[in-house]
Every structure is written in structure tokens, then in C-alpha cells.
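Hi,

Apologies if this is the wrong queue. I'm a grad student, and the batch job for FAD-binding oxidoreductase from Fructilactobacillus cliffordii produced an output file that my downstream script rejects. I'm not sure whether the problem is my script or the file. Here is the sequence I used:
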Amino acid sequence: MVGTSAAYFLNQFATADQLQVTLFDNGTGQATKAAAGIISPWLSKRRNQHWYRLARDGADLVRQLATATKMDSQTYANNGTIITRKDAAQVFELEQLALERKQSAPSMGEIRSLNPSEIKQLLPMLTNMQQPGLFVSGGSWIDGNRFCQHLLAQCSQAMVHVVSEQVTLADEHQLITTGGVQRFDKIIVATGAWTRELLRSINVQTDIRPQKGQLIELQLPHSTLPNRPVLMPESEYDFIPVASDRLIIGATHEDDQGFDLKDTVAATTDLLHTAKHLIAGISSENVILKRVGTRAYTSDYGPFVGSVPEHADLLVGTGLGSSGLTTGPLVGKLLAQLALDQTVDLTTYSKPVTNYLRSER
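Support response: The file is valid. Your script probably expects a header line. Output copied below for reference.
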């Protein structure tokens, strides 16, 4: 998501006679490729204000990109979000927070409380829904892989070249490829959880750890109308209706699996357990697809973006965690602006990169 968005915005900001962009991607393990996620950051309880501003403005940018590039409904869908709570009092508290945050985030749209019956009307597959919730019309969802492929298709083929291989870093201007060493004026590191390994080759230590995420897609017993809102049930996994008869459940957050990309029975069972709570008649036979990816997290769960210390032309943006689909396009845009030496106020969105990167020279 970060690398693709950076390439897209470089294509928007310059022309092929001014700039050449090469995207190196070995195609394995990325969280983006496996992800279908909800774009609805406004009611998060996270206290990191850098993250909140990045996610809030990132959600606006995702919507703008979807509209400007005419994404289809399988790539981006703005059908609203429902967030449930244990009782009406907690929904009221959430509604007050929503109204407060809407003052700086008008794209949240309509905000209204729902009783369980009203939620069932919007999501008829939820036969066992018993909790009230809050509806936010500005919420949406995207398919990460389709989103990236769509953005790349908007780029000039004369400017942006995609090379399907894994490369290593020689220094801030050179990459070691299968065809030999290639030199670049600027290098953007958009390698997510693999950033630690990549930067180690130039003696830079990185506060990044991998986190495994798994999700499942279900074939529903009965079809419903399309364009249903997504559901964020309290203390459960998210529900994303991707078609009238298909539903995605997920994703897991597994801190002890490293870069393992195998789907597991334990995760599938856990995800199915959430589905069974709210949907009658669901079993393992309804699972038609499993996806696995690796996210990047920092120790304080904060994303960061900027130049690598002592390497001004080496730019990095990572640590996005489970909010990567929301924040990734904006991080990519910031990196594109930095690569073109545009003035960017990173303090709005990121703590200093020195909080996360340390040169060992």
C-alpha cells in the first residue's frame, strides 16, 4: 500500500521526462495483498494523536482516491460502519465521542444510534444480534490488493516500472538486484515488517516487529441485498460484507508467529467462533477462502515516516500495523513529496524517526 501509493503520487506530481520510478516487489507476504479492511478510524480509543491525525486524514485520502480514479465496488465501498457496544449507555457515550470528533472530521457523515432490530434490518445475516450500536455513514472498506493494482493501472507505463524480485540495500543510493547493482537518486523503503532486515545491511537498527494476520471469507447460507455496512462488534472480529452472499471475518493479531504465512486451524476456528456468535447455521463448510499476511508494528504502535538518520536520500514509512489500509496511501503521498524535496510537515503525523531508527556507525 505504501510503495504503490508513493509510485502513484510520484506519477501525479511529475512527468516521465522528469522522473523514472522503479517498484521492486517479490510479491510474498505483504499485509496489503492479504487484506480487506475497514476504513473507519474516527472512534478509536488509541491515545497516539500522531496516529489519529494520520488515520483521520488517511481515510479522507482513500475516499478521494477512490472517487478520482473511479474504483469499482469490489475494490472500495462506502456503505457505512456499525460499531456495537454492550448496552445503550455505552452507545450513547460512543455517540458523544463521534459528534465531538466529527467537528474535525466532517467526512464521518451521518451518525445515529441503532437498536438490535435496526442492525438486523441493515445486516439481515446477523440472526443472533442482541447488542445496540452506532452507525457512521462515512465508514467504508477496501480490498488492499485490488486497490494497489488499480492505482498502478493509473500510472504512466513510461514512468513507473514494476520489477518482480527481491532486492537488498547496498547504501542509500544503490540496490543489489539480480541484474547487478542499480543506482537511484532516492530510495523509498516501503518494506513493512521486513524493514528491520533491509536496513540492518547499512548498520541501522529498526524498532519493527512482524505480526501475523489471518482472515476468512464465508459463503453465506442466504443472499441479502448488496451494499451492506461493515460491522465492528465489540470484543469480536470485524464483519465485511463483500457481496450479497459473501462475508469476510477478521483479522487476527498474532505476535509470536514471525513471518509464517501458513493459515492455521486455530485461527480459522477462532474466526468462525465470532461468526457463529452472530450468524446461525455457520460452519467450516462455509469457509471459501483464507488469507494470511504480515503487518509491521513498532513498540509503541506508532507509524513513522521520514529520512533514515545519516542517509538523507533514503526514505522510510512503516509501522502502520492493522491501520495500514487507512494510513498507507497518506504515508505513500508524504514519501513521494519528500522524494521530490517538497516541504512536508511530518510532525503532524509522525514522531521523530530517531525514536525508531538508530545508526550503529
